[in-house]
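Dear Dr. H.,

I hope your travels went smoothly. While you were away I took the liberty of generating a structure for the chain from your last submission, since the lab meeting agenda had it listed for discussion. I wanted you to have the full record in hand beforehand rather than looking at slides cold. The sequence, exactly as received, is reproduced here:
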Amino acid sequence: MSKLPGWLGQLGAELTKMGERLEELRVEADDEDDRAVHEGAPVTADAVPGAGSAKGAAADHVPPPPAYAPSVAARPDPVAAIPWGMRVAAEAGWRLLVLAGTLWVLMRVISAVQLVVLAFVAALFVTAMLQPTVARLKGYGLPRGLATAVTAVLGFVIMGLVGWFVVWQVMDNIDTLSDKVRTGIDDLKNWLLDSPLHVTDQQINDVAKNLSDTVGTNTEAITSAGLQGVTVMVELLTGMLLAMFSTLFLLYDGKRIWHWVLKLVPAQARPGVAGAGPRAWRTLTAYVRGTVIVAMIDAIFIGLGIYFLNVPMAVPLAVFIFLFAFIPLVGAVVSGALAVVVALVTEGVFTALMVLVVVLAVQQIEGHVLQPFILGRAVRVHPLAVVLSVAAGGMIAGIGGAVVAVPLVAVTNTVVGYLRSYGQEESRRHSPPPHGSTALDTAPTPAPGSPPEDIDDGSDDEPVDHAPKKI
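The corresponding predicted structure, in token form, is as follows:
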């Protein structure tokens, strides 16, 4: 029994050492868990004894998939999945839709105020024709207001006298024309009866009766057309008054009106628009003056040919030729055909053929000599563009649209060309100066056979300017 206390004492000492050892192991395991959490390594409960307390800290880290798991390809970006050509087409498509919608709205607005627009455009044409006279009178010492008043009054009086003269000539020759038309119809009837076409008198009478019945049946439509003609005359007078007032203000205060328009343009685009405006005005002025000169030459020479061929109403026909000359291509054909028809009905086939020869000769000289010499390259438009623009203008706004179409295309061509050149010059001006090999590529190359002293190698004492020269 004396050995029992000693054995118990040794057992207690061994248990104490074991507890201390377990405590040391638990502390070491906690230290390893803390170090693993800070380093980002995953911690498992089987790593060390007593590591169960690290499960909460390791729960935030997703373990990697096992090696035997199948690989799943990542889905590409939807933008990258669309082909490049389709993306470009879509980008261009919605921009074209926006532009088409804007043009549609603009055309609807112009159609709603068509009378005002055409009156203002006519005022621009008249101003372009009369402005040199105002400048010349101001050069003679007249004040701007007096020079504008004198020019406008003289211009409107001359146009009014021409209109009165045309009406007077038509009214004075209407009886003679009616008699000659009846005589021409009888001659045409006799020619048809004696021609190889074997037309009988009964067939001609049937055609005349059908025409008479058509007129009697459509009396109401003809009456409404006459009332519509009265409405057109009222609108024409209103447009003339608007054009007269607009011309007065444009002649007197055109520069300040242009400066006010520039204030409506964004500041970044204002310099380009300010440079394109005068060039567009010069193009319009050159077009109006050249067209007036060409139209006067056509009217004078064709009118003289009609007069010497004894065709009635030579002066009114010459005035119609002058007015229709403002409609390119189409106007010359219509006015020439009108002169030929009048000659055919009044004087017969031979006179009509002679009038046709005169019209074709004058128009050929106009197209190949007068227009290139008088109008010049500033307002030269391709014939296809002329035909398409005249057709589009006629469909949109009738005769007024056909008159405005070609100068609008010429002015647009001038403005677009200037803005393109201006944009290239601005990009070149704000681009960084060339350096290194780029500077060597842009350096001027001496002409073959130039003396060596003309070549600047930078070895002299004067500083060499390597900045790019402005073009």
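Two observations you may find useful: The chain has 14 helices and no strands. Residues 144-194 form the longest helix (51 residues).

With kind regards,
E. W.
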